[in-house]
């Protein structure tokens, strides 16, 4: 169970579907393996009713690519079903091709060629699963997160969904949420690995811990089991002493009004925040705000959590909420836990190829894309066009090429954007959507995509 | 980007929410950290309309627990926000308590105490996120997978969803699917790490690779770009030569009838299988079966894939399908990507504790559970009762205790079930459900749970 970059075992080569390697074996045997190919990643559609998607995971794809090598341990596994020549070929595997893609944090729409991988069939085909796993996961989370950030109206957003997703997906979810505009995460591995700011409050367990037995308060006065308020006061006092006055106290273990009174009694009106994790959060937030203000705690923030999604966040917009803590709905993509992107062979030795079976047609040929915008910055159209041809006419709009170089000759290009750069890119992208693009209701993609021939 | 057990860096200690460690700091400071506690894991409800859940991930929790230690790298991260005494305490951290739980593969219902973690507050509280992440993910996948296995009526099931989930969640998904009755996986890391049988067919890319340029066939006769059938024949010939006659050919890149004819022409009637990945799979399966039989390929299997979920699988039950390949819906829990289990403090120094805020009440006290069955094996009831009290009356039914020892004094007990044992346990559990429990339609939990006082 390893979780870290570093000096340990680091191969990503088995995060792969078996069929990629059996196709490789057949292609090596018939000599088609060395044909020059382009594979493109795109989503046929957005999740139901979504108006845009956010490309996320590109940086992680590049990291994973660097570790896509077959050591002895990996070779031993694939040798069980592959011919010896294929195993030997994999022993020397390093991706040597080129990759272009939408910048991490770019918005995307149905058919947007978000990644273009070029090289021999052999070196490209084996990357399918790894590339898709990363982009599909991270883009699903970032796309949901961006809607939540829009809905929050600029309030502070904390990602706290680690417990509702795979333990090793959790740091990636936190990264994707931060990319999309969240301010902080509860996940410590995301803090360590990606530098996402950490945050946290307290759990009901901490208050309950102080029930049932005698408690020595900070003032040395013993309190005994009995009224809930006493346990709560002991827990709050302990938390404030250990973590300082800026901490956030969880006030809904028992009665909330009593909890708020106790919190301010213990901490004073300079208390950093109180958290509400249950009940009608809108009604409660107003009551608690009034109560806090009445107690002189006018700066004490109200943190709300508990089954929040973008709709619940939007519904609380008129309420005196300062911070949203979002868990389950974020890490599960708010109903769309995967972005549904595919990795398709579109060109072989310069010739476009495409399958033609029903309902899953794809467009052949290596593509590029431009996004056209008004002077105001508002996007009006995305045009996907053959890479071999000229850029389409911009008709007086600003035209921006969407595919940027990511890998050349197997090596990541220099000066790739940081996570912070990509976060700015998302924020800028959301501002540039037509106004209806930020509506939470189900609708069509916010920007029409044209496929030029 | 590490993915393996082994000699490398292996700490799971940062797969944790920050608040667990700040609560720890406060509890160490006020001396409540050493109180004896029980934390229980349970689901308040099943996902909408589900009739049962499958406990999965228990084995992975025990592995992760062994690696829950703070090395210098982990300590450096937590030292940024924790007092020095807490950091020192974490340096020596090893879980020394006891864990009981439902056996991996056991069915569960709302309120089932699927894991019971006992020890000091300090040593238990820090495990919350890691335990929940694993159980919530794996149980969600296994619960969806079990419904698909039931719906398949005993046909072969291949998990192929890696590309639609986080790259490191994929092997765990494959493990959970296998646990629940799937036969094989496409994911090579799951093959390596968990011994799940591997499987795979071929992608459209392999056929398309053979389009557009001259192809040297196995017989030395060059074929040139032109008709689809020629490319397809070249691709099929290559695959059969490399992988043998038992391989499965993907016949829907172009025209399916033509594809099937080409497949048998190239491979002969002993061909292992053909795969259909698009279109109306029921209609196509019948047509293709007739065509194959007419060509003498009566043993050639029909593999279907493409957006299958339990409902689509059930709808194909009357059709001549031999193998189902399931991807997206499996790894996303078929609409329920997390099991929604929680980790709650229920007892402190022998005294039951419970929060009482609205809508999220929990039941205090350490619990056990028995399941009552008829002589026929059919479950009639689950009874959750106080661990301190006597087992409830079984009223003439067979009574089976559901919580089994998993960890004693911090060490896993001996003779823990293997993945194969747990797989048998699921199969047995599904047989023991009342008949309506296997219905796919939305309904109530198949077994009533009684909470005895």
TrEMBL record, chains A, B:
Q: Which PANTHER family is this protein grouped with?
A: NICOTINATE PHOSPHORIBOSYLTRANSFERASE, NICOTINATE PHOSPHORIBOSYLTRANSFERASE PNCB1
Instruction: Tell me the protein family, please.
Output: Belongs to the NAPRTase family.
Pathway terms, separated by semicolons: Cofactor biosynthesis; NAD(+) biosynthesis; nicotinate D-ribonucleotide from nicotinate: step 1/1
Transferase listed as a keyword: yes
InterPro entries tied to this protein: N/Namide_PRibTrfase, NAPRTase_N, Nic_PRibTrfase-Fam, Nic_PRibTrfase_pncB
Its protein name is: Nicotinate phosphoribosyltransferase
**What is its biological role?**
Catalyzes the first step in the biosynthesis of NAD from nicotinic acid, the ATP-dependent synthesis of beta-nicotinate D-ribonucleotide from nicotinate and 5-phospho-D-ribose 1-phosphate.
Gene Ontology MF terms:
glycosyltransferase activity; nicotinate phosphoribosyltransferase activity
Which residue range or ranges hold the Nicotinate/nicotinamide phosphoribosyltransferase domain? 157-371
Q: Which residues form the Nicotinate phosphoribosyltransferase N-terminal domain?
A: 14-136
Q: Which UniProt keywords apply?
A: Glycosyltransferase, Ligase, Pyridine nucleotide biosynthesis, Transferase
| Known EC number | 6.3.4.21
PTM remark: Transiently phosphorylated on a His residue during the reaction cycle. Phosphorylation strongly increases the affinity for substrates and increases the rate of nicotinate D-ribonucleotide production. Dephosphorylation regenerates the low-affinity form of the enzyme, leading to product release.
Query: CDD domains under this entry?
Result: NAPRTase_A
Top-level lineage group: Bacteria
Catalytic activity, reaction form: 5-phospho-alpha-D-ribose 1-diphosphate + nicotinate + ATP + H2O = nicotinate beta-D-ribonucleotide + ADP + phosphate + diphosphate
EC supergroup of this enzyme: ligase
């Amino acid at each position: 169970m390893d979780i870290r970059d570093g000096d340990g075992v680091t191969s990503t080569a088995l995060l792969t579907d078996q069929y990629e390697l059996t196709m490789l074996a057949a292609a090596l045997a018939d000599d088609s393996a060395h044909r020059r190919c382009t594979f493109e990643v795109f989503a046929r559609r957005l999740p139901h009713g979504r108006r845009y998607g956010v490309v996320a995971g590109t940086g992680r794809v590049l990291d994973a690519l660097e570790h896509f090598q077959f050591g002895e341990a990996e070779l031993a596994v694939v040798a069980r079903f592959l011919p010896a020549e294929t195993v030997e070929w994999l022993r020397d595997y390093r991706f040597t091709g080129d990759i272009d893609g939408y910048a991490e944090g770019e918005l995307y729409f149905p058919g947007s060629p978000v990644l273009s991988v070029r090289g021999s069939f052999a070196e490209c085909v084996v990357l399918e699963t790894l590339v898709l796993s990363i982009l599909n996961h991270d883009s699903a989370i970032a796309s949901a997160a961006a809607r939540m950030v829009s809905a929050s109206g600029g309030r502070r957003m904390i990602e706290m969904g680690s417990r509702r997703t795979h333990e090793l997906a959790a740091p990636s979810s936190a990264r994707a949420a931060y990319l999309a505009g969240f301010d902080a995460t509860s996940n410590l591995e995301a803090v360590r690995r990606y530098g996402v700011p950490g945050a946290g409050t307290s759990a009901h367990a901490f208050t309950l811990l102080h029930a049932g037995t005698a408690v020595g308060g900070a003032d040395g006065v013993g309190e005994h089991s009995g009224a809930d308020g006493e346990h709560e006061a002991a827990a709050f006092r302990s938390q404030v002493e250990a973590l300082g006055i800026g901490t956030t106290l969880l006030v809904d273990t028992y009665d909330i009004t009593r909890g708020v009174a106790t919190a301010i009694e213990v901490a004073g009106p300079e208390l950093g925040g109180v958290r509400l994790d249950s009940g009608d959060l809108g009604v409660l937030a107003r009551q608690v705000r009034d109560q806090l203000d009445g107690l002189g705690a006018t700066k004490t923030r109200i943190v709300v959590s508990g089954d929040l999604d973008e709709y619940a966040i939007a519904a609380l917009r008129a309420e005196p909420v300062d911070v949203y803590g979002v868990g389950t709905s974020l890490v599960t993509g708010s109903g769309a836990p995967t972005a549904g992107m595919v990795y398709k062979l579109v060109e072989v030795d310069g010739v476009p190829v495409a399958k033609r079976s029903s309902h899953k047609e794809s467009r052949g040929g290596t593509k590029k894309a431009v996004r056209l915008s008004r002077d105001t910055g508002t996007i009006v159209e995305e045009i996907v066009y053959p890479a071999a041809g000229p850029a389409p006419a911009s008709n007086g709009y600003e035209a921006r090429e969407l595919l940027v170089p990511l890998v050349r000759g197997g090596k990541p290009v220099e000066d790739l954007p940081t996570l912070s750069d990509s976060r700015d890119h998302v924020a800028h992208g959301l501002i540039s959507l037509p106004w209806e693009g930020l509506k939470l209701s189900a609708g069509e993609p916010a920007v029409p995509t044209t496929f030029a021939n």
